[in-house]
Specification:
Chain lengths: 140, 140, 140
Protein backbone atom coordinates (compact mmCIF):
# COMPACT_ATOMS: atom_id res chain seq x y z
CA UNK A 1 0.00 0.00 0.00
CA UNK A 2 1.12 3.60 -0.45
CA UNK A 3 1.56 5.99 2.46
CA UNK A 4 -0.96 8.70 3.30
CA UNK A 5 -0.72 11.44 5.89
CA UNK A 6 -3.26 13.68 7.63
CA UNK A 7 -2.84 16.58 10.05
CA UNK A 8 -5.29 18.55 12.13
CA UNK A 9 -5.17 20.79 15.21
CA UNK A 10 -7.67 20.76 18.06
CA UNK A 11 -8.21 23.97 20.04
CA UNK A 12 -8.97 24.33 23.74
CA UNK A 13 -9.41 27.05 26.32
CA UNK A 14 -10.28 25.89 29.81
CA UNK A 15 -12.07 28.03 32.43
CA UNK A 16 -9.84 26.66 35.19
CA UNK A 17 -6.08 26.49 35.71
CA UNK A 18 -6.28 22.67 35.68
CA UNK A 19 -8.75 20.44 33.87
CA UNK A 20 -9.08 17.10 32.08
CA UNK A 21 -11.01 16.94 28.80
CA UNK A 22 -11.98 13.70 27.05
CA UNK A 23 -10.89 14.28 23.44
CA UNK A 24 -11.55 10.76 22.16
CA UNK A 25 -14.58 11.77 20.01
CA UNK A 26 -12.57 14.65 18.47
CA UNK A 27 -9.62 12.42 17.61
CA UNK A 28 -11.99 9.80 16.18
CA UNK A 29 -13.58 12.46 13.96
CA UNK A 30 -10.15 13.48 12.64
CA UNK A 31 -9.35 9.83 11.91
CA UNK A 32 -12.57 9.32 9.97
CA UNK A 33 -12.00 12.54 7.99
CA UNK A 34 -8.51 11.31 7.10
CA UNK A 35 -9.80 8.17 5.40
CA UNK A 36 -6.75 6.32 6.74
CA UNK A 37 -7.57 2.69 7.56
CA UNK A 38 -4.30 1.34 8.88
CA UNK A 39 -1.32 3.05 10.47
CA UNK A 40 -0.29 5.12 13.48
CA UNK A 41 -1.90 8.20 15.02
CA UNK A 42 0.16 10.66 17.08
CA UNK A 43 -1.74 12.98 19.43
CA UNK A 44 0.40 15.52 21.29
CA UNK A 45 0.07 18.76 23.19
CA UNK A 46 1.74 21.61 21.30
CA UNK A 47 2.42 23.25 24.69
CA UNK A 48 4.82 22.47 27.51
CA UNK A 49 2.41 22.93 30.41
CA UNK A 50 -0.20 20.41 29.32
CA UNK A 51 -0.45 16.71 28.48
CA UNK A 52 -2.17 14.21 26.25
CA UNK A 53 -2.64 10.84 27.97
CA UNK A 54 -4.82 7.74 27.98
CA UNK A 55 -6.64 6.61 31.09
CA UNK A 56 -10.17 6.14 32.50
CA UNK A 57 -13.11 8.54 31.99
CA UNK A 58 -14.16 8.53 35.65
CA UNK A 59 -14.70 11.71 37.66
CA UNK A 60 -13.42 10.24 40.94
CA UNK A 61 -10.16 9.25 39.26
CA UNK A 62 -9.72 12.73 37.77
CA UNK A 63 -10.15 14.18 41.25
CA UNK A 64 -7.51 11.69 42.47
CA UNK A 65 -5.15 12.80 39.65
CA UNK A 66 -5.61 16.45 40.74
CA UNK A 67 -4.85 15.70 44.40
CA UNK A 68 -1.93 13.42 43.55
CA UNK A 69 -0.28 15.82 41.10
CA UNK A 70 -0.61 18.65 43.62
CA UNK A 71 1.15 16.44 46.17
CA UNK A 72 4.00 15.49 43.80
CA UNK A 73 4.42 18.96 42.23
CA UNK A 74 2.53 21.60 44.25
CA UNK A 75 1.46 24.83 42.57
CA UNK A 76 2.23 26.94 45.67
CA UNK A 77 4.20 28.57 47.15
CA UNK A 78 5.25 29.96 43.77
CA UNK A 79 8.57 31.03 45.26
CA UNK A 80 9.73 27.41 45.67
CA UNK A 81 10.55 27.25 41.92
CA UNK A 82 13.34 29.15 40.19
CA UNK A 83 11.32 29.16 36.95
CA UNK A 84 8.77 31.43 38.65
CA UNK A 85 10.64 34.74 38.27
CA UNK A 86 8.26 36.18 35.67
CA UNK A 87 6.00 33.09 35.54
CA UNK A 88 3.88 31.21 38.07
CA UNK A 89 3.58 27.94 36.14
CA UNK A 90 6.67 25.88 37.04
CA UNK A 91 4.40 23.27 38.65
CA UNK A 92 2.59 22.85 35.32
CA UNK A 93 5.89 22.00 33.57
CA UNK A 94 6.53 19.30 36.21
CA UNK A 95 3.00 17.87 36.21
CA UNK A 96 3.14 17.56 32.44
CA UNK A 97 6.26 15.33 32.71
CA UNK A 98 4.39 12.85 34.92
CA UNK A 99 1.31 12.76 32.70
CA UNK A 100 3.25 12.83 29.39
CA UNK A 101 3.26 14.95 26.23
CA UNK A 102 1.82 12.54 23.70
CA UNK A 103 0.20 9.22 22.86
CA UNK A 104 0.69 7.04 19.80
CA UNK A 105 -2.34 4.95 18.85
CA UNK A 106 -2.58 2.06 16.41
CA UNK A 107 -5.13 2.49 13.60
CA UNK A 108 -6.75 -0.77 12.45
CA UNK A 109 -9.76 -1.15 10.14
CA UNK A 110 -10.22 2.62 10.17
CA UNK A 111 -10.67 2.83 13.96
CA UNK A 112 -8.60 3.66 17.06
CA UNK A 113 -7.29 0.22 18.07
CA UNK A 114 -8.19 0.48 21.76
CA UNK A 115 -8.85 -1.74 24.73
CA UNK A 116 -12.28 -1.50 26.39
CA UNK A 117 -11.56 1.39 28.76
CA UNK A 118 -8.95 3.43 26.90
CA UNK A 119 -9.95 7.09 26.48
CA UNK A 120 -7.74 10.00 25.35
CA UNK A 121 -7.50 13.09 27.56
CA UNK A 122 -6.14 16.58 27.24
CA UNK A 123 -4.66 17.45 30.63
CA UNK A 124 -4.42 21.19 31.20
CA UNK A 125 -2.16 22.46 34.01
CA UNK A 126 -1.90 26.16 33.08
CA UNK A 127 -5.24 26.99 31.54
CA UNK A 128 -7.43 30.04 30.85
CA UNK A 129 -5.56 30.64 27.60
CA UNK A 130 -5.72 29.27 24.04
CA UNK A 131 -4.02 25.89 23.63
CA UNK A 132 -3.56 23.46 20.74
CA UNK A 133 -3.33 19.68 20.33
CA UNK A 134 -1.85 18.15 17.19
CA UNK A 135 -3.28 15.03 15.56
CA UNK A 136 -1.00 13.51 12.92
CA UNK A 137 -1.92 10.24 11.21
CA UNK A 138 0.23 8.26 8.81
CA UNK A 139 -0.75 5.05 7.11
CA UNK A 140 -2.86 3.79 4.26
CA UNK B 1 9.32 1.15 -0.69
CA UNK B 2 5.65 0.43 -0.09
CA UNK B 3 4.11 0.42 3.39
CA UNK B 4 3.28 -2.76 5.26
CA UNK B 5 1.48 -3.19 8.54
CA UNK B 6 1.27 -5.98 11.12
CA UNK B 7 -0.79 -6.35 14.29
CA UNK B 8 -0.74 -8.88 17.09
CA UNK B 9 -1.95 -9.07 20.69
CA UNK B 10 -0.02 -10.57 23.59
CA UNK B 11 -1.96 -12.03 26.52
CA UNK B 12 -1.03 -11.98 30.21
CA UNK B 13 -2.50 -13.00 33.53
CA UNK B 14 -0.27 -12.43 36.54
CA UNK B 15 -0.56 -14.32 39.84
CA UNK B 16 0.12 -11.16 41.83
CA UNK B 17 -1.48 -7.70 41.93
CA UNK B 18 1.81 -6.17 40.74
CA UNK B 19 4.47 -7.72 38.52
CA UNK B 20 7.02 -6.93 35.82
CA UNK B 21 7.34 -9.29 32.82
CA UNK B 22 10.13 -9.07 30.24
CA UNK B 23 8.24 -9.21 26.92
CA UNK B 24 11.23 -8.50 24.65
CA UNK B 25 11.37 -12.06 23.20
CA UNK B 26 7.62 -11.99 22.49
CA UNK B 27 7.82 -8.62 20.71
CA UNK B 28 10.86 -9.82 18.74
CA UNK B 29 8.89 -12.89 17.62
CA UNK B 30 6.03 -10.70 16.39
CA UNK B 31 8.51 -8.54 14.49
CA UNK B 32 10.09 -11.54 12.78
CA UNK B 33 6.65 -12.93 11.88
CA UNK B 34 5.74 -9.56 10.34
CA UNK B 35 8.60 -9.68 7.86
CA UNK B 36 8.95 -5.91 8.26
CA UNK B 37 12.60 -4.82 7.97
CA UNK B 38 12.41 -1.07 8.51
CA UNK B 39 9.88 1.12 10.27
CA UNK B 40 8.32 1.77 13.68
CA UNK B 41 6.91 -0.66 16.25
CA UNK B 42 4.31 0.49 18.79
CA UNK B 43 3.87 -1.66 21.91
CA UNK B 44 1.11 -0.52 24.27
CA UNK B 45 -0.97 -1.81 27.13
CA UNK B 46 -4.64 -2.09 26.10
CA UNK B 47 -5.56 -1.46 29.76
CA UNK B 48 -5.44 1.63 31.97
CA UNK B 49 -3.95 0.01 35.07
CA UNK B 50 -0.80 -1.37 33.46
CA UNK B 51 2.22 -0.13 31.53
CA UNK B 52 4.66 -1.01 28.79
CA UNK B 53 8.10 0.50 29.39
CA UNK B 54 11.77 0.01 28.60
CA UNK B 55 14.35 -0.36 31.35
CA UNK B 56 16.81 -2.86 32.84
CA UNK B 57 16.15 -6.59 33.38
CA UNK B 58 17.54 -6.67 36.91
CA UNK B 59 15.61 -8.09 39.87
CA UNK B 60 16.98 -5.57 42.39
CA UNK B 61 15.80 -2.69 40.21
CA UNK B 62 12.32 -4.21 39.85
CA UNK B 63 12.13 -4.44 43.63
CA UNK B 64 13.19 -0.76 43.78
CA UNK B 65 10.44 0.13 41.26
CA UNK B 66 7.86 -1.65 43.47
CA UNK B 67 8.97 0.18 46.63
CA UNK B 68 9.23 3.53 44.87
CA UNK B 69 5.83 3.33 43.15
CA UNK B 70 4.21 2.34 46.45
CA UNK B 71 5.78 5.43 48.02
CA UNK B 72 4.62 7.77 45.23
CA UNK B 73 1.14 6.24 44.80
CA UNK B 74 0.34 3.88 47.70
CA UNK B 75 -2.23 1.13 47.23
CA UNK B 76 -3.65 1.55 50.76
CA UNK B 77 -5.64 2.86 52.49
CA UNK B 78 -8.13 2.36 49.66
CA UNK B 79 -10.32 5.10 51.10
CA UNK B 80 -7.78 7.83 50.26
CA UNK B 81 -8.92 7.72 46.60
CA UNK B 82 -12.32 8.89 45.32
CA UNK B 83 -12.05 6.40 42.43
CA UNK B 84 -12.30 3.57 44.98
CA UNK B 85 -16.08 3.61 45.50
CA UNK B 86 -16.70 0.32 43.70
CA UNK B 87 -13.03 -0.27 42.82
CA UNK B 88 -9.80 -0.67 44.77
CA UNK B 89 -7.38 0.08 41.96
CA UNK B 90 -6.99 3.88 41.90
CA UNK B 91 -3.31 3.47 42.78
CA UNK B 92 -2.83 1.32 39.67
CA UNK B 93 -4.15 4.15 37.45
CA UNK B 94 -1.61 6.52 39.03
CA UNK B 95 1.34 4.11 38.90
CA UNK B 96 0.65 3.52 35.22
CA UNK B 97 1.05 7.26 34.50
CA UNK B 98 4.56 7.26 35.97
CA UNK B 99 5.65 4.13 34.12
CA UNK B 100 3.85 5.02 30.85
CA UNK B 101 1.34 3.34 28.52
CA UNK B 102 3.48 2.60 25.49
CA UNK B 103 6.85 2.50 23.80
CA UNK B 104 7.73 3.21 20.17
CA UNK B 105 10.75 1.30 18.88
CA UNK B 106 12.71 1.83 15.68
CA UNK B 107 12.97 -1.22 13.39
CA UNK B 108 16.22 -1.42 11.41
CA UNK B 109 17.49 -4.38 9.38
CA UNK B 110 14.57 -6.47 10.62
CA UNK B 111 15.51 -6.07 14.31
CA UNK B 112 14.53 -3.95 17.33
CA UNK B 113 16.99 -1.04 17.08
CA UNK B 114 18.07 -1.09 20.73
CA UNK B 115 20.94 0.03 22.90
CA UNK B 116 22.82 -2.64 24.82
CA UNK B 117 20.62 -2.78 27.92
CA UNK B 118 17.17 -1.89 26.58
CA UNK B 119 14.50 -4.49 27.44
CA UNK B 120 10.72 -4.14 27.09
CA UNK B 121 8.52 -4.81 30.13
CA UNK B 122 4.86 -5.28 30.81
CA UNK B 123 4.20 -3.60 34.17
CA UNK B 124 1.07 -4.95 35.87
CA UNK B 125 -0.45 -2.90 38.71
CA UNK B 126 -3.89 -4.56 38.98
CA UNK B 127 -3.29 -8.17 38.08
CA UNK B 128 -4.90 -11.57 38.59
CA UNK B 129 -7.09 -10.98 35.55
CA UNK B 130 -6.71 -11.32 31.75
CA UNK B 131 -4.82 -8.44 30.15
CA UNK B 132 -3.68 -7.62 26.62
CA UNK B 133 -0.73 -5.82 25.02
CA UNK B 134 -0.93 -4.57 21.43
CA UNK B 135 2.01 -4.80 19.03
CA UNK B 136 1.54 -2.73 15.87
CA UNK B 137 4.32 -2.47 13.29
CA UNK B 138 4.35 -0.26 10.22
CA UNK B 139 7.13 -0.08 7.68
CA UNK B 140 8.57 -1.97 4.77
CA UNK C 1 3.57 8.51 -1.83
CA UNK C 2 6.14 5.83 -1.13
CA UNK C 3 7.71 5.33 2.29
CA UNK C 4 11.23 6.48 3.12
CA UNK C 5 13.25 5.88 6.24
CA UNK C 6 16.29 7.55 7.79
CA UNK C 7 18.37 6.66 10.85
CA UNK C 8 21.12 8.48 12.71
CA UNK C 9 22.71 8.36 16.14
CA UNK C 10 23.68 11.35 18.25
CA UNK C 11 26.55 11.00 20.73
CA UNK C 12 26.91 12.63 24.15
CA UNK C 13 29.25 12.59 27.10
CA UNK C 14 28.38 14.94 29.93
CA UNK C 15 30.89 16.30 32.47
CA UNK C 16 28.37 15.92 35.28
CA UNK C 17 26.30 13.02 36.61
CA UNK C 18 23.11 14.89 35.68
CA UNK C 19 22.54 17.37 32.87
CA UNK C 20 20.00 18.60 30.34
CA UNK C 21 21.10 19.25 26.74
CA UNK C 22 18.94 20.97 24.11
CA UNK C 23 19.22 18.65 21.10
CA UNK C 24 16.61 20.39 18.91
CA UNK C 25 19.18 21.77 16.41
CA UNK C 26 20.81 18.33 16.09
CA UNK C 27 17.48 16.59 15.45
CA UNK C 28 16.52 19.30 12.95
CA UNK C 29 19.81 18.71 11.10
CA UNK C 30 19.10 14.98 10.88
CA UNK C 31 15.61 15.72 9.55
CA UNK C 32 16.95 18.02 6.83
CA UNK C 33 19.61 15.47 5.85
CA UNK C 34 16.89 12.82 5.54
CA UNK C 35 14.97 14.78 2.92
CA UNK C 36 11.74 13.48 4.46
CA UNK C 37 8.95 16.07 4.20
CA UNK C 38 6.04 14.36 5.90
CA UNK C 39 5.88 11.59 8.49
CA UNK C 40 6.91 10.75 12.05
CA UNK C 41 10.24 11.20 13.84
CA UNK C 42 11.16 9.03 16.83
CA UNK C 43 13.91 10.33 19.13
CA UNK C 44 14.87 7.98 21.98
CA UNK C 45 17.65 7.41 24.45
CA UNK C 46 19.46 4.12 23.72
CA UNK C 47 20.26 3.89 27.44
CA UNK C 48 18.13 3.13 30.49
CA UNK C 49 19.47 5.85 32.78
CA UNK C 50 18.68 8.82 30.56
CA UNK C 51 15.70 10.43 28.86
CA UNK C 52 14.58 12.29 25.77
CA UNK C 53 11.75 14.72 26.50
CA UNK C 54 10.15 17.95 25.28
CA UNK C 55 9.81 20.97 27.54
CA UNK C 56 11.03 24.57 27.95
CA UNK C 57 14.61 25.79 27.34
CA UNK C 58 14.80 27.83 30.54
CA UNK C 59 17.64 27.49 33.05
CA UNK C 60 15.45 28.12 36.10
CA UNK C 61 13.12 25.31 35.06
CA UNK C 62 16.04 22.91 34.54
CA UNK C 63 17.20 23.71 38.06
CA UNK C 64 13.64 23.00 39.26
CA UNK C 65 13.68 19.64 37.41
CA UNK C 66 16.95 18.73 39.16
CA UNK C 67 15.61 19.61 42.63
CA UNK C 68 12.26 17.92 41.99
CA UNK C 69 13.73 14.68 40.61
CA UNK C 70 16.13 14.49 43.55
CA UNK C 71 13.14 14.79 45.88
CA UNK C 72 11.11 12.10 44.07
CA UNK C 73 14.01 9.70 43.49
CA UNK C 74 17.07 10.73 45.57
CA UNK C 75 20.54 9.64 44.48
CA UNK C 76 21.71 9.01 48.07
CA UNK C 77 22.00 7.11 50.28
CA UNK C 78 22.98 4.54 47.66
CA UNK C 79 22.13 1.75 50.10
CA UNK C 80 18.38 2.53 49.93
CA UNK C 81 18.18 0.74 46.55
CA UNK C 82 18.58 -3.00 46.00
CA UNK C 83 19.86 -2.32 42.46
CA UNK C 84 22.94 -0.69 44.00
CA UNK C 85 24.89 -3.83 44.83
CA UNK C 86 27.54 -3.33 42.16
CA UNK C 87 26.01 -0.09 40.81
CA UNK C 88 25.21 3.33 42.25
CA UNK C 89 22.71 4.45 39.60
CA UNK C 90 19.32 3.07 40.72
CA UNK C 91 18.05 6.63 41.11
CA UNK C 92 18.89 7.29 37.44
CA UNK C 93 16.65 4.37 36.35
CA UNK C 94 13.78 5.87 38.38
CA UNK C 95 14.31 9.47 37.23
CA UNK C 96 14.29 8.29 33.64
CA UNK C 97 10.79 6.79 34.09
CA UNK C 98 9.40 10.16 35.18
CA UNK C 99 11.03 12.08 32.34
CA UNK C 100 10.42 9.36 29.69
CA UNK C 101 12.53 7.43 27.19
CA UNK C 102 11.38 8.90 23.90
CA UNK C 103 9.40 11.47 21.97
CA UNK C 104 7.52 11.08 18.69
CA UNK C 105 7.32 14.24 16.60
CA UNK C 106 5.15 14.97 13.58
CA UNK C 107 7.03 16.03 10.42
CA UNK C 108 5.12 18.48 8.22
CA UNK C 109 6.49 20.44 5.24
CA UNK C 110 9.98 19.14 6.01
CA UNK C 111 10.04 20.62 9.54
CA UNK C 112 9.46 19.52 13.15
CA UNK C 113 5.75 20.27 13.63
CA UNK C 114 6.09 22.06 16.97
CA UNK C 115 4.25 24.55 19.12
CA UNK C 116 6.01 27.82 19.92
CA UNK C 117 7.93 26.68 22.99
CA UNK C 118 8.59 23.00 22.32
CA UNK C 119 12.28 22.07 22.54
CA UNK C 120 13.79 18.54 22.65
CA UNK C 121 16.14 17.65 25.51
CA UNK C 122 18.51 14.85 26.32
CA UNK C 123 18.23 14.30 30.07
CA UNK C 124 21.29 12.60 31.52
CA UNK C 125 21.02 11.02 34.99
CA UNK C 126 24.16 8.85 35.02
CA UNK C 127 26.68 10.78 32.99
CA UNK C 128 30.43 11.02 32.53
CA UNK C 129 30.32 8.17 30.03
CA UNK C 130 29.52 7.79 26.30
CA UNK C 131 25.81 7.76 25.53
CA UNK C 132 23.74 7.55 22.36
CA UNK C 133 20.40 8.93 21.16
CA UNK C 134 18.62 7.38 18.19
CA UNK C 135 16.77 9.47 15.60
CA UNK C 136 14.56 7.42 13.28
CA UNK C 137 12.34 9.10 10.70
CA UNK C 138 9.77 7.44 8.49
CA UNK C 139 7.64 9.16 5.91
CA UNK C 140 7.83 10.59 2.46
Amino acid sequence: MSMKSYRQELHFRTDKRRDFINITPLVRNVLHESGIKDGLCLVNSMHITSSVFINDDEKGLHSDFETWLEKLAPEKPYSQYRHNGFEDNADAHLKRQIMGREVVIAITNGELDFGTWEQIFYGEFDGMRDKRVLVKIIGE
